[in-house]
Structures are given as structure tokens and as C-alpha cells.
């Protein structure tokens, strides 16, 4: 969805959107985010503030992601509120007062006189992700020797943990954690 800013009325404009689960998915299977897991509700208020535009929004829904430790996919709830500042293309003078007072916000420069809502929402989804994605706090990850998912099975390597070589491995793993 594209919003053309020139056609926008003065006052704020509100969008209540629902992205269905097929909106985003089927992309790169190795990506950390595999797509939506159910509908995503997005509320946006677009307003003109001096020479720039501000998007105040919130999103909530579930996405399918890959666990950083065991590489299994799982459903992750996302909920976030955001404010994005859209500035005119850099060729035009940028209001320095605004740039200073709102530097902690994400500022994007508009390439054109339009906002691509889908792209904006996808970016905000990525920003809403935690640094580490874990299927659950106590995820045991993969065996460093055979690659077995230790949440599901105790592999043979663990049975042999008395062996000096495996003790060494355990040490390395503990240090890494
Ligand atoms: Zn996991
Ligand atoms: Zn193993």
C-alpha cells in the first residue's frame, strides 16, 4: 500500500490495518523471520509536522521465527509501538531543530513523495524482535558434536560424557555460554 503525501489532507490521517498471514512469508527459508503466524494488526496515524511527516503506530500479532539456539521455528508474539519521522529528500534543507530534538527516533528520508506502508511495517517488525530469539528460555540447543536437538533427544554424545574428549567439549561450551 502506498500513501501519496501530496494528496493528504492537512489533519492527521488514521489507518487501521490488518495484514493477513499470507502477506509476508515464503521468502528466504534461512531467514530469521519466516513470516506471519496469523493476522497482524497495525494502527497508524500519519500527520504532517512542519516540513516532515510523522507516523505514530502500533502493531500486534504473531510471527514465525527461528530459534537462535536450536534452529527450530516457533511462533513469537510481537507487540510494539513506534514513531517514525519521515523527512523530505536530503536535497531539501532539513530542519536542524527537529533533527536535534528528535534524534533518538528513527528518521527516514523520503525518496519520493510517498510512503510505502508495507515496507514501513516490515521494518518495524524487525525492530520489535529481541536480540536473541529463543523458542523458550531453557532451550537446550543443538549438540555441538552430532547436531541433535537436545530438547527432543539425549544423543549418544551425552551418554559418553565421561570421556575426557567430551569433558573438554563441555568446558568449551560452558565458556561460550
Ligand atoms: Zn530453541
Ligand atoms: Zn550429540
Could you describe the 3D structure shown?
With 177 residues, the protein is α+β, with helices and mostly antiparallel strands. It has 2 domains: 2-127, no CATH class; 140-177, no CATH class. The chain is built from 4 helices and 8 strands, in the order E-E-E-E-E-E-H-E-E-H-H-H. Strands 2, 3, 4, 5, 6 and 7 form a 6-stranded mixed β-sheet that branches. Strands 1-8 form a two-stranded antiparallel ribbon. The longest helix is centred in the C-terminal third of the chain and has 13 residues, at 164-176. The model has no long low-confidence stretch (mean pLDDT 81). One zinc ion (ZN) is lined by residues 67, 69-70, 72, 134-135, 139.
- What summary fits the major beta sheet? 6 strands, mixed
Measured distance between first and last alpha carbons: 43 Å
Number of spatially distinct domains: 2
Strand elements, count: 8
- Bound molecule types: zinc ion
Mean pLDDT across the residues is: 81
Q: Secondary-structure element order, as H and E?
A: EEEEEEHEEHHH
Number of helices: 4
Please indicate the percent range of residues in DSSP E strands (runs of 2 or more): 25-35%
Q: What Rg, in angstroms, do the CA atoms define?
A: 23 Å
State the low-pLDDT regions, or none.
none
- Shape descriptor: elongated
User: Based on helices, strands and strand pairing, what is the structural class?
Assistant: alpha+beta
Amino acid at each position: 500500500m502506498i500513501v501519496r503525501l501530496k494528496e493528504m489532507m492537512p489533519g492527521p490521517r488514521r489507518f487501521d490495518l490488518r495484514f493477513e498471514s499470507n502477506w509476508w512469508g515464503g521468502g528466504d527459508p534461512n531467514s530469521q523471520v519466516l513470516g506471519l503466524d496469523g493476522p497482524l494488526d497495525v494502527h497508524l496515524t500519519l500527520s504532517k509536522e512542519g516540513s516532515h511527516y510523522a507516523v505514530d503506530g502500533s502493531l500486534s500479532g504473531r510471527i514465525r521465527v527461528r530459534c537462535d539456539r536450536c534452529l527450530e521455528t516457533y511462533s513469537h508474539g510481537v507487540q510494539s509501538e513506534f514513531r517514525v519521522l519521515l523527512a523530505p529528500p536530503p536535497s531539501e534543507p532539513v530542519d536542524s531543530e527537529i533533527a536535534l530534538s528528535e534524534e533518538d527516533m528513527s528518521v527516514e528520508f523520503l525518496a519520493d513523495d510517498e510512503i510505502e506502508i508495507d515496507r514501513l511495517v516490515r521494518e518495524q517488525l524487525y525492530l520489535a524482535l529481541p536480540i536473541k530469539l529463543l523458542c523458550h528460555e531453557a532451550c537446550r540447543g543443538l549438540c555441538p558434536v552430532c547436531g541433535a536437538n537436545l530438547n527432543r533427544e539425549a544423543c549418544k554424545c551425552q551418554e559418553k560424557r565421561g570421556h575426557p574428549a567430551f569433558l573438554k567439549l563441555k568446558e568449551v561450551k560452558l565458556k561460550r555460554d
